[in-house]
Design a protein that fits this description.
Oligomer: single chain
Strand content: 5-15%
């Protein structure tokens, strides 16, 4: 039987010291990977898995306590699943896309701009922030910095990271729970399109009637995505 250093520490001084050692090991491994530069999908999966391990200790999810960084939890979960439907945050995000999809389909069918019913400015803004990975950006980079790790924003690295992350979760649908009878959509799937000088992260929304719409956000060479939210 192999006995790790962490196991020995736990047996001698108890769970608290073991947790501290475990976090320091994870942070050291993350630092090593970030120093290399994140340039492959494999590195993205490794980084998100390690971040999730830290979240489990620093920002746990419980029935009585919501996590401080729900979007970071969501993106970690999505990265590690072929389809996601059990996540509470995934369902919350799907409900926001559901409202936006219904409104935009009504606009297309009527052929004119109409007042969005049930789509508050707050939800519109959040859908745009989700589509542009802005909330993911905020929570992941704040988390890295809080652990003494370098941000992914420096040198325009965030845009490259978004492209790699999007490739990882590409075609891994967010699935609306079947017991949500009021929902109009069934799933949202992300895919990446390469365009001249930019790439686009496209969120395809499919509804129960077999119709689909797409929210598209284009990213250029800068660290800030071009806000190009469209429906096709």
């Amino acid at each position: 039987m192999w006995v790790t250093r962490e196991t020995i520490v736990r047996s001698r001084v108890g769970d608290v010291s073991f947790i501290a050692m475990s976090q320091s090991v994870i942070v050291r491994k993350l630092a090593s990977e970030l120093d290399k530069g994140i340039t492959t999908e494999v590195q993205v999966v490794y980084l998100m898995a390690a971040v999730r391990k830290l979240l489990e200790q620093q920002d746990p999810r419980t029935r009585d306590q919501k996590p401080q960084r729900p979007y970071l939890w969501f993106h970690c979960d999505w990265c590690l699943h072929s389809r996601l439907f059990k996540s509470k945050k995934a369902q919350d995000i799907l409900e926001k896309f559901d409202r936006a999809h219904v409104c935009l389909m009504e606009q297309i069918e009527s052929g004119r701009s109409i007042e969005p019913k049930g789509l508050t400015p707050e939800i519109q803004k959040e859908v745009q922030q989700i589509s542009g990975m802005e909330l993911f950006d905020k929570e992941l980079n704040e988390f890295l910095e809080a652990n003494g790790l370098p941000s992914l924003r420096s040198g325009g690295n965030w845009v490259g990271f978004v492209q790699l992350y999007s490739r990882v979760v590409e075609d891994c649908p967010l699935v609306m729970r079947s017991n949500n009878e009021s929902a109009n959509i069934v799933q949202v799937t992300l895919h990446v399109e390469q365009r001249p000088d930019v790439f686009a992260v496209c969120w395809k929304v499919e509804d129960k009637d077999g119709k689909s719409g797409e929210f598209s956000v284009a990213f250029g060479s800068s660290a800030v995505p071009r806000p190009n939210l469209l429906l096709s």
